[in-house]
Design a protein that fits this description.
binds pyridoxal-5'-phosphate, cysteine desulfurase activity, four-stranded antiparallel beta sheet, single chain, Aspartate Aminotransferase, domain 2, Aspartate Aminotransferase, domain 1, alpha/beta, Cysteine_dSase
Length: 399
């Protein structure tokens, strides 16, 4: 294995560490209890099935659902594909129009684009400069042939929290299915598929201290939501997702979600404390801008742009000390600013100079202090040699 000096981990929005309690819960199901949960002729299968069903009830409890409405998948990417493509194909006789936001995760956007190739019409809605959906624009985009609206609960790049309950109410009034990608929301905001009138909700384990490669889709039964399966095989998971269930992964996600419910208040209080520390530590940096609404956000994710500098140069300077994400993604030929920051209307240079700092359960004040010192000195050094003027006192305008 290659060895790297490992920087302070402040990239929780990309994936969280697996909670040691989760690891401990998983190991027996990987080691001695290896039975196939679909084996119904012997105790090896029965005990695995029981563990799977207990985990299903933990996942359901976190979102106010019934256990039988939860379908295991390989993660939120697969859940988004199953929810959107599955509903589009099942309801295409009713209509062939879908609505989403320009700031959704690629797993939603690319699924929508694939449907366009199959003759569906998709509206990709702009967001407001604070990153939040405009409900009147959403309502105006609805057509008689609209079958599904997909709006995430919490944005992965900038941490803003959409008003899922208001969107759900609007969709229910119009008779349109409402899908929520909640990968970044579990354990951070209270979720209730009944109160929010959500029909389909995508969940991921590894953004909430569980293992990678396991997720779930909530599929409403009353009123019943029909889906066309995307994976064909043994008819597992009510025929919606065939494939042998990975008991150890499922047990891990179940334990992670059980802990998330127990510890949400504590985790959020801790994140709010770190958020204050980050905001205080960067507030006087010239030309700093907070991306996304200043208050309607989770406290775990702060995305800043720094006027006058290049994000890539900044990343080069800090990456030995602190693990962060930038708001740019290298495509084959060029570095493109993130589609989310562009949708906020950030100028190209500001969209190019962004950093996402995300933290959580295992982050400490000492981690943040060390990271802040490094980021501050890197930004100031780059601004000092920058040919671009740095506007003084741009300050923290979260819009
Ligand atoms: C991480 C993430 C996904 C993808 O989830 P996987 O489980 O990694 O497939 C989808 N949507 C959002 C908002 C995410 O943050």
């Amino acid at each position: 294995m290659p060895s790297f000096n490992r920087p302070i981990y402040l990239d929780y929005a990309a994936t969280t560490p697996v909670d040691p309690r989760v690891v401990q819960a998983m190991v027996p199901w990987l080691a001695e209890h290896f039975g196939n949960p679909a084996s119904n002729t012997h105790a090896w299968g029965w005990e695995a099935e029981e563990a799977v069903e207990q985990a299903r009830s933990h996942v359901a409890a976190l979102i106010g659902a019934q256990a039988r409405d939860v379908v295991w998948t390989s993660g939120a990417t697969e859940s988004n594909n199953l929810a959107i493509t599955g509903a589009a194909l099942a309801y295409q006789d009713k209509g062939r129009h879908l609505i989403t936001l320009k700031t959704e995760h690629k797993a939603v956007l690319d699924t929508m684009r694939a449907l366009e190739q199959q003759g569906f019409a998709v509206t990709f809605l702009d967001v407001q400069p604070n990153g939040l959906v405009d409900l009147s624009a959403l309502q105006a985009a609805m057509r008689p042939d609209t079958i599904l609206v997909s709006v995430m609960a919490v944005n992965n790049e900038i941490g803003v929290v959409h008003d899922s309950a208001a969107i759900g109410q609007l969709c229910r009034q119009q008779g349109v299915l409402f899908h929520v990608d909640a990968a970044q929301a579990t354990g951070k905001v209270a979720l209730d598929v009944q109160a929010m009138q959500v029909d389909l909700m995508s969940l991921a384990s590894h953004k909430t201290y569980g293992p990678k490669g396991i997720g779930a889709l909530y599929v409403r039964r009353q009123p019943r939501v029909r889906l066309q399966a995307q994976m064909h095989g043994g008819g597992h998971e009510r025929g919606l997702r065939s494939g042998t269930l990975p008991t150890h992964q499922i047990v891990g996600m179940g334990e992670a979600f059980r802990l998330a419910q127990l510890e949400m208040a504590h985790d959020n209080a801790h994140a709010r404390q770190l958020q204050q520390q980050v905001l205080a530590g960067l507030a006087d940096v010239p030309g700093v801008v907070l991306n996304g609404d200043a208050t309607q956000r989770v406290p775990h994710n702060l995305n800043f742009s720094f006027a006058g500098i290049e994000g890539e140069a900044l990343m080069t300077r800090v990456s030995d000390t602190v693990a962060l994400s930038s708001g740019s993604a290298c495509t084959s030929a060029s570095i493109e600013p993130s589609h989310v920051l562009q949708a906020l209307g950030r100028s190209h240079p500001l969209a190019h100079s962004s950093l996402r700092i995300s933290y959580g359960r295992f982050s400490t004040e000492a981690d943040i202090a060390q990271a802040l010192a490094c980021i501050r000195s890197a930004v100031l050094a780059l601004q000092a040699i920058s040919p671009l003027a740095v506007p003084a006192g741009l300050g923290f305008v979260g819009r």
